[in-house]
Design brief:
By secondary structure, this protein is α+β, with helices and mostly antiparallel strands. It has a single domain, classed as Dimeric alpha+beta barrel (Alpha-Beta Plaits). Helix content is 22%, strand content 36%. The strands form 2 sheets. The protein has a 4-stranded antiparallel beta sheet, covered by helices on one side. The longest helix has 19 residues. The relative contact order is 0.31.
Length: 121
Amino acid sequence: MKYMLLIYSPDGAGPTPGTPEFAAQRAAWFSVTEELAAAGHLVAGDALQAIDTATTVRVRGGEKLTTDGPFAETKEMLGGYYLIDVDTLDEALAWSAKMPNIGYGSVEVRPIMELSMDGAG
């Protein structure tokens, strides 16, 4: 079963870029990614750029509206994701607990809805 691990951190939380702590956490992210891949569970994963690079698109009354920034104001920002393929929710939860930001952020674990284009499923 596939699960999306959505990785959130409070804006400005975590180590500051350029510090030894930042370098250590970056290495920890690479380590988790390599561990997921070696276990055969990694489908995809990426870090996202800062929230000030986001653009939200809506269509209202047939008109496309764009807004700078994320969809909603929030205390935590979506910083990245992993798409993993594991056998159980418990496995997905165990992987989420390994995320280097887990001490100050959170990981939302969501099962992927499998849909087919032919309407079956």
